[in-house]
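Fold this sequence, please.
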Amino acid sequence: MTNPPLDSAIFLVVTVLAIVVLWRFAWFLVRHGLQAAHRLPGTAAGRQAWARIHPLRAATARQFPRVYAHFARRLDPHGFSGLPLTLTVVAAAYLAALFGGLVEELGEAEELARFDSRIDALVGPWRTTLLVDLFAWITALGGTAALTAAALVATGFLWAHRRRHVILPLWVNIVGSQATTYIGKFGFGRERPDFVTEATAVSPSFPSGHTTGAMAVYGFLAYAIVRDLVHPRQRFEVTFWTAILIALIGFSRVFLSVHYASDVAAGFLVGGFWLLVGFAIAEYLRQRTQDVGGP
């Protein structure tokens, strides 16, 4: 580990510029995507191809009423139990499949080891004293103490603001993600990379607990905040900067040489899966609370 200030400054400047460019580009895509989504129903309704579907739908409803009713409920965009829940389940299944593929690669070892080695070779020259200290501070935000404090404080605020239907999903998300992480760690027993900085760890390496926890806790807190925001720009800002924080925590584990890149990728997948589970439970409870007229 060296201490060339110029290299550290270049790394920080390039990183900040890249994040700013990504921020502007992401908002550009979101803004134009929302505008296109608002125009889509009217555009689709006016197309002849869309009009020709209606007789086919009617015939399907007559011939297969139960099947048609089932798919109509699953594709109904007007309630969470319809299209939103369907897309959530599909996304969760996709993340689980990706994790399964990563586990399969872990069993084969050689190709995944080459990938991890290439990433470490790219990061290694930038491990200066200044940057190691910076990423040690960032990685602490994904540690047990920080995540537990964030979850407890959030629970208190949710209770005080009478959003108690969000508390159970928050803790299901946290407990589920951590349980899956430690099952993976001690089930696969993957050894850590060689420690080349002052950062160390004692548990097995796969998947990254910091990354999983950051995704589960900070991701769900962002959801809890965004859910009651009205303006799209506010929702975007909370979502984007939370994603940057989670990404930096994941990257810090590789930068500090306490995890392989594939460990961090697995952490994102595990955390993302349980985050979607938490979303689904929260939206179900929210809808049920509204149906019964509760707070």
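The two ends are 55 Å apart (CA to CA). Residues 5-45 form the longest helix (41 residues).
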